[in-house]
Amino acid sequence: GPTIGVLALQGDVREHLAILETLGARGAPVRTSEELDGVDGLIIPGGESTTMWRLARSFGLLEPLRKHIHDGLPAYGSCAGMIMLADRLEEAAPGQETIGGLDITVRRNAFGRQVDSFEAELDFPVLGEPPMRAVFIRAPWVEGVGERVEVLARVAGRATGRGVAHAPDSEAVTGRIVAVRAGRLLATSFHPELTADARIHAHFLEIVKEA
Ligand code: GLN
Hints:
The protein is an alpha/beta fold.
């Protein structure tokens, strides 16, 4: 079977590796461009995108990551990983760069500040029933998508707040795009690696197998 790399510079790497294991997939941490050369798909975890960008740059990984993704390496980014895959950012830190590849504009920390997290049930048609229980932590949302990008899920209310600045069912938040796919690139604003639901990872494995 395929080897799924998890970019292991920073963030919740172990959680992604653990989910891959429950699916019977081979996961491998990626810290060098040699390790990147050996994978069939790449997961970019949640964490802090500015730190991930700085580490990727100083490890000499930014250009190799760009090249592999440009050449068609399937990739899935959760939260900070979504930010790393975005072509355009709102609220970027000064000088902050991404890997890019996904024709989307992502707004960092869109739902609120550091303490803000919430959970919501999302209708996620490509995954079927039941709805996805999604954990958002200082999450970005997708502000805009290019024409070849498929919107997979939006916030639709029904959220349980945990220190939420804007109620997730408020007008500003309802309808916000939180999951997208374009070709071999998949991204979610939330963290499926923090729940027992492995359907997003299974979906990504399908994308890798098709590629
Ligand atoms: N706010 C973080 C960032 O900008 C993302 C948060 C997360 O990955 N949970 O990178």
